[in-house]
Amino acid sequence: MVSLLSGGDIRAEFRSVAMEKLLLYLKVMKKRIIAIDETNGRIDISDNPPDMPDVDVKVGIRVIDSWIRIFCLIKAPFTIEELGPSAADVLFGLLRLQDDYAEFNFGISRNNELVVKADIYIPALTLDVFMEEYYGVLNAYAKFMTKILPILKEGKMGWREMMDIW
Amino acid sequence: MTPQFIRNMILNYLNLMDKEYAYEGGVIKVKEKVGDVSFTVYIKFSGKWVQVFAVGPSISDLDKETKLKVLEKLLELNATTFEVKYSVQDDTIIMSAESNIYALTFDNFYLEYGSVPFGYKQLIAEVLPIMSKQKTEEQGSESNNQQ
């Protein structure tokens, strides 16, 4: 079958279908949507991470080309300098952790933000996959904030401790 | 879905992709090449996940400053690249992509698989130069010492 849609139209169509599915899944999952920008494929959720009932965290969902990115901001700005002498150990710990876990990964954005994220290829988007990735990100956020960050602030964190705590 | 069923699905996909592979000890090994560099892409199955990965260079011999720059670059690439994920295991850089078995279709596998050689290409372009800079500096200081 020959598509009559141009590249830009296909992307817009892809984004529109993905947004429709995402909004249905979020409704089924009873999530609190705080912002929707259908034109640019952006949804923000306010959610309570596991074991953090009093904390509202913003979970961002972005439809970018053929991908859906789910992310939580962990720390901004995140600079290597503030980690002091244990910087290499902390970065190593983040990269080591994500080798063990398929559901999420850590990244440092161009704006120097430490984020935890997961990407889904739009044709692979189903409720089961979305839930797996969404809660993977949220759980990783909760673990990082409750168990890793307090020790990180004390400057006593080594990668082995990070692995043990996780 | 049993592990055998998933394995057979993936072997079928690799055949369709004309890949040269071997299945040994529960792991599929596929020959890949980026430019002049040959490497192996491994495919493993664990629980709900199919993991596609390639093993990069070791960072154990890097000095502290270079190691920090490399780790920072890997985390930056994680934020800017879709699907392929950079991590470390026993001081070795790993590029991997995971697919949930519920999402295992040819289209999805093709993309997940392709992201790993792409990650390797990106490693060669953006990470290896940081590592080789240290070696160049070391060689420079050695030749200075000899003089």
For the largest interface in this structure, which chains are involved and how many residues does each contribute? A-B, 33 and 34 residues
Nearest-integer average pLDDT of chain A? 86
**Basic shape of chain B:** elongated
Distance between the termini of chain B: 66 Å
Q: Write the element-wise H/E pattern of chain B from the N-terminal end onward.
A: HEEEEHEEH
Poorly predicted sequence stretches spanning 5 or more consecutive residues of chain B: none
N-C termini distance of chain A: 50 Å
Count up the domains of chain A.
1
Largest sheet of chain A: 6 strands, antiparallel
Quaternary status of these chains? heterodimer
Q: What is the C-alpha radius of gyration of chain B, as a whole number of Å?
A: 18 Å
Please give the number of β-strands of chain B: 6
Assigned CATH class of chain A: Alpha Beta
Question: Average pLDDT across residues of chain B?
Answer: 90
Number of helices of chain A: 4
Coarse morphology of chain A: elongated
The neighbouring-strand order within the major sheet of chain A is 1-2-3-4-6-5
Query: What is the fold named in CATH at topology level of chain A?
Result: Yope Regulator, Chain: A
Strand content of chain A: 15-25%
**How many beta-strand elements of chain A?**
6
Strand order of the largest sheet of chain B: 1-2-3-4-6-5
